[in-house]
Amino acid sequence: MIWSLIFWAHSVSAADRGEKFLQELRKREYFDTALDYLEGLNKQPGLTSEFRNRAGFERGLILRDWASRQVSPEQIQASQKQAQKEFANFLAQQADHPLAGQAWSELGQLLQMEAKSLGLQAQRAVSPERKQQQLEDSRQKLKQAREAFQQALVRQQKEYEAFPKFIDKEKEPERFEARRAVETNVVQTRLNLAILAFDEALFAPPQDRREHIAKAYDQSAKIYEEYRSQLAGMYARLYQGRCRLELHQNQEALGIFQELLTLRVDDPAILALQDQALMYRLQIWNADSEKKYEQVAQEAQSWLKAHTDRSRSRAGQGIRWELAKAYEALARKNEKNSDLEEAEYQRSLAVARELSLQPGEFQTAARQLVNRLSQILHRDTGEAKDFDGAFAQAGDTIRLLQGLQDSLDHAEKEEDKTRLRDDMNLQLREAARQLQFTLSMVRPGTSVEQVCRVRYWLCYVYYLTGRMDEAAIVGEFLARKFHQNQALGTLPLDAAYLAMAAYSQACNAPDNPDKQVEIRRMISLCNFLVATWPKESKAEEAMLMLGRLYSEVDDPQSAASWFDRIDSASPLALDAQLGAGTAYWNAYLHLRQNAAADKVDDPKLKEYAETARTKLQRGIEETEKKADEAAPPADTLRLAKLTLAQIENEAGKFKAARDLLYGSPLSVLGTHPEPQPEVTRNTGLATEAYRQWLRAAIGLKNLQEAQFAMKGLEQMQGGTADLYVALGNQFQQELERVRGKDAQRETELLGSFEAFLKALSAHPEGNKFGTMAWIGETWLKLADAIDDPSHAKPYVDQAADLFQAILQRADKEPDFVTPEQRVAVEFRLVSCLRRSGEFERSLANCQKLLKQRPQSLELQMEMAKIYEGWGETGGPNAAAHWSAAIQGQDSTDPATPTIWGWAGITTRLNRQLEKQSAEKLTPENKSPDKKANEGLVNQVLDARYHVAYCRLKEALQQSTGEEREKTLQRAAADIQYTVAQRELNETWYQKFNSLWFQILQAEGKSPTPLPRTGGPAVSPETTQATHAATPSGPASSKNQRPFPISFPVMAVICVTLVGVFLLVFLNRPRRTRTRYSKYSRKQPTTKL
Amino acid sequence: MIASKFSRRTATSLAIALVLGLSLSGLQAAEVVTLRSDAKKLSGEVTESSKSGILLKPAKGEAIRIPADDIQQIQWVGEPSALRTARNDEIAGRTQKAFDGYQQALQELGEMQVNPRAEATFGAARSLATLALSDKSKIPAALDKFGEFQQKFPDSYHAWEVLMLQSQMLLLKGDTAGSQKLYQQVRDSGLGSYVLAGELGLARIALSKKEYAQALNSFEQVTASPLKGPLMDRQRQEARLGMAECLYAEKKFADGIKILDELIDQTPAENEKLLATAYLRRGDGYVGLAKTKEAVLSYLHVDVLFPDQAEADAEALYRLSQLWESLQHPERGLQAKERLVQQYPNSSWAKSGAK
């Protein structure tokens, strides 16, 4: 890798290769190579003198970064010391270098860190002389740090003042950003000085402390006042709290920490700050003056459960330390109840033991606490000396866990369950450590069976603590290596089963990037399990699991072959039939999706759907023969019927679907139209059942049942726009599926949807705002599903009439809609008018809205579309319309909003994208929103496409050859620029390529394919987002979000209609697979 | 009473020990031979010793002929406690201390105590060779010591082992031709596992010279050898590891992984060292295939199942610390790094990891 870098370094231009190469090395954390490279810099030809001059500064940065990546305190300190030296040398040689301010600031921070480290060492020093000396050294370093920060501040302020007071952000974005960066540096240095004052207070002689704290408080207060909404301001606020804490003004401090904790943000940097605020709050609550130990325990436990990923940070360790102390205090508080007392001590010991094993500020104190508690609990403070001793201790811990598990199984009150779960979590971590220790005591001659037992316990503990990879590894090892060991009984089989469960959990983890790995492992292990223990009941469960796995990888034949091996008399027989049916159904859905994408019909489609139907019908019939009609059907039967109902609805057999879902004691929803408890307890199943019932009722034109189904859905989901948008999408997708293939079915579908919408409009329910808005939206969806604009127009007009009616009613009844709802409806009306070709009205209405929200991207896009659509109609003003669509219209009159046009929209979107990419690079931003980024990329590409498309159209309108040629060249250049800047996925490439051909044709050139070059790759997901776009024209509005004015506004509209629904429908993927496993996934039945 | 239970030979030994001022801890009644194949200890009197092996006459029963390649060590009657301590230090990895101990034992031993002297000289040479693995400046000293051994004890049962260690040192020094020559001699020894060990050595040399076809051929010869016995089985397993490495070198990662999968499947659970190495190499193969997740799972096997295999565990932790991040688990990478530095601070992997 290094060689490829070096090769690369030689291939770029000499002037900037040094800097780029170095940046790349630092980015990859090849710090030693970076230093070596700098060392030999003088030998490198072609480097600028500027870069050579700041080599020392670069060395300092590398060493600083290297220190932050090291683990051992000695290495960290050594690297930091060396970094200090580098910055100091750089400043001595290049005092007036533009980077001097930053170098001073870096030096100050390094000195401050060293001072703190010395101060902490002093606190631990035993000899008073040594303590005094270290404190004195610490103070000296702090003094030097202060001088460094002051030097930095002087330079940064000078730099800031060199900028003019006003910079137009729109006209000079780069300069504006440069000034903002300098301002950030100034604020950061001021904050550093305030924090330094606080550190000075911590290590100052007692008589001077108050003065230093007051100084730190004032400095922090000033920063907070000026920048309260920025990160620096919030940190300043935290230090105000810490100052209060140091002055024992606990209530004031608590107020400040509380204020910080109530901020609702997702920024990782602010979350880290909140963790610190929480740590200090717990510290106060644990103080003798407060004694709020229960609150500490509760809050710390909740935090730990929610933020395991941050539990090893400094604040995380601090929170755990406070938790250990709180448990210890609670034990003392319960000294009269020995059981309670011991339980609390054990909790404290478990937390402290874990903390004592992690390096950090709290490790020593935690170790001391472990020793103290071990004595109190009469535990041997040391570990066992041999395997037998360790095995016995591990056995005790496992028994303790079993006891907790048993209590948890029988606990009735939720608070008891929570407490027991918390206890389990604490003890599980301790158990894992103890079991690992026991295994480290294995020596030649140790009983193999005992070792296997310990490994099995460890496997289970890993499983319960969510460490699925580890659990699967240990379980599989036990199964494969010890299955022939008779003395172990069923342990290897249990271990195999547990490993399967662990793989399954790992596979379903939301952050799993590649599920195929687990699926392959599970298939292999399952085959082993079935081959090794063919007669065990777990083998049948494994066959079931294996069948489901093959189903997951869309291999229905293999899946069915495993399901078919399960005996028809087995209690798992229905599961097997259902599994086989579902496997074929999933495969059908998958094939259908692919067929839709490839626009071809796969002959297997029909076969899969039919096989799914047959298998499900057979399973249902056999189960119903044995079923008791008086008792509600089991979930398995309900699920089988629901899947079959989906199949029948798909086939247009609405009556059959309806009968499976409703009307008989053994139907999915039973005989009551209102949701019954035995149905609604399985929310996912019930929701899908109501959705399918609604679909069947619409197909049967049974408005009454459709209303029942809708009410059921509302009750189940509490969803709003999402639910109805999803229904609208479902109609649209159904129409798209049959479009061009089955004219009769298309007519039938349209007819049933129209009839339903009209009936709903005529119903009293249809007078409500939310219903009206949804009906309008659904008319638009139906229009989207029709290719021919003339055929779609009646539906757009229906929608427009409805939106118009809402506005008219709102004029008469002011309470009918909220202002936000009104804006949303007006916006939809603008779209409808545009799509109906009423450009003048549409333009006027859009301008009215734009006056209120001139920066709204959605409105600006709509405006560009209006001009573009208008341009398409031709006429004497066509050229002006095309020009307005591209360039927009400037306005100096505040009453007339500026129109950006597609070019202006592209610029702004690009800027947004760059900003997002830059944020992604910051160390604080650990989890950039990938989807948001992809959405933005698609918007940029779409806007760029419109620019090129409109230019082509503009050119075709132009009369003079020269003008026309120039415009066509610009259109071609737009596309070339897009392709050069960004690697396009296939869909986008084809779209741009098609336009490229049209431009070449217009230029009279022979068509050559658009060259494929590009920058950062567009991820495959974006393909889906652009899939429906036609290659010959701009993305039509049907590919946009149904309500582009913003989702929250739409949500507000529909709240009035249906209350609160779950978001499940919104997130529902297009591929509506029946997630059998989701409804019936089992926990492993094996116990410790 | 007690004295009557001693044999005449033991009494003599005790007397000699007392005369020579040896401690009583060094006292034993008979030679104890530890076997390499099954770690069994046999005691008796070594009545014959040559390059091909020894003849051990137990207190009861027939004399046993033990081939040189199956002798792990012999504790000789009358050997000083310093020799025993040095052996323990060497096993525990305290190599420099072991070397000093062997030297001390040589000083304590009389010129006539030929066998213990041979043992101590061999131990000192082997310790130097181990030290030379991490400090090349010690190679000449190690080679000298082996030369001294060959000169003084030309017929020792250690003779072939000495050739192999010499060969390793020459290879380390870069003298592949010299190393090759010695391995050929070992291969031609005709002694069971030494035949295979010689072939393995030649395969390793070919691998280091990037003669992959030749290396693969040698490794395959080892795996196909009809020789039977636990020692030979271990060498066959080692050869399969080597075959995988050859295939990797030719970018045939999937083929290499297949061999390792079979090896893992067939290796018993107690052979932890081999399993740990096989999982590590399997992980390397997946890295070669850019299948990071499979690689991580393979390395994780070592850390989860064989944490006592220190060198392998250190390597696994290093690899995990590098790979977890690309699976969106930077915190696990950091934990692996922390454990690497804490548990194996002196390992070369910890030093690489700190960079």
Q: What can you tell me about this protein's structure?
A:
The complex is a heterodimer of chains A (1088) and B (355). By secondary structure, chain A is an all-alpha fold. Chain A contains 48 helices and no strands. In chain A, helix 19 packs antiparallel against helix 20, helix 20 runs parallel beside helix 22 and helix 25 runs antiparallel to helix 26. Chain A is globular. In chain A, 44% of the residues are buried. Chain B is of the alpha+beta class. In chain B, helix 12 runs antiparallel to helix 13. The longest helix of chain B is centred in the middle third of the chain and has 21 residues. The N terminus of chain B is likely disordered. The interface between A and B is medium-sized, with 31 and 30 residues.
Summarize the model shown:
Chain A has 1088 residues and is mostly helical. Helices cover 74% and strands 0% of the residues of chain A.
The main sheet of chain A comes to: none
Beta strands of chain A, count: 0
Strand residue content of chain A? under 5%
What distance separates the N and C termini of chain B? Answer: 68 Å
Largest sheet of chain B, described in full?
Answer: 5 strands, antiparallel
CA-atom Rg of chain B in angstroms: 23 Å
Secondary-structure topology with pairs:
The complex is a heterodimer of chains A (1088) and B (355).
Chain A: H1 2-11, H2 14-27, H3 31-39, H4 49-53, H5 55-69, H6 73-93, H7 100-124, H8 128-161, H9 173-202, H10 206-226, H11 231-246, H12 250-261, H13 268-286, H14 293-306, H15 314-333, H16 338-356, H17 363-376, H18 387-410, H19 414-440, H20 448-464, H21 468-482, H22 491-508, H23 515-532, H24 537-552, H25 556-564, H26 573-598, H27 604-626, H28 635-650, H29 654-661, H30 677-680, H31 683-699, H32 703-717, H33 721-738, H34 743-762, H35 769-784, H36 789-812, H37 819-835, H38 839-852, H39 857-872, H40 878-887, H41 901-921, H42 930-957, H43 961-981, H44 986-1003, H45 1021-1025, H46 1047-1058, H47 1064-1067, H48 1076-1080
Helix pairs in contact in A: 1-2, 3-5, 5-6, 6-7, 7-8, 7-9, 8-9, 9-10, 9-11, 10-11, 11-12, 11-13, 12-13, 13-14, 13-15, 14-15, 15-16, 16-17, 16-19, 18-19, 19-20, 20-21, 20-22, 21-22, 22-23, 23-24, 24-25, 24-26, 25-26, 26-27, 26-28, 27-28, 28-29, 28-31, 29-31, 31-32, 33-34, 33-35, 34-35, 35-36, ...
Chain B: H1 2-5, H2 8-20, E1 31-35, E2 41-50, E3 53-57, E4 64-67, E5 71-75, H3 81-91, H4 95-108, H5 114-134, H6 139-152, H7 159-173, H8 176-187, H9 192-208, H10 212-224, H11 230-249, H12 253-266, H13 272-288, H14 292-305, H15 310-323, H16 330-343, H17 348-354
Antiparallel strand pairs in B: 1-2, 1-5, 2-3, 3-4
Helix pairs in contact in B: 3-4, 3-5, 4-5, 5-6, 5-7, 6-7, 7-8, 7-9, 8-9, 9-10, 9-11, 10-11, 11-12, 11-13, 12-13, 13-14, 13-15, 14-15, 15-16, 15-17
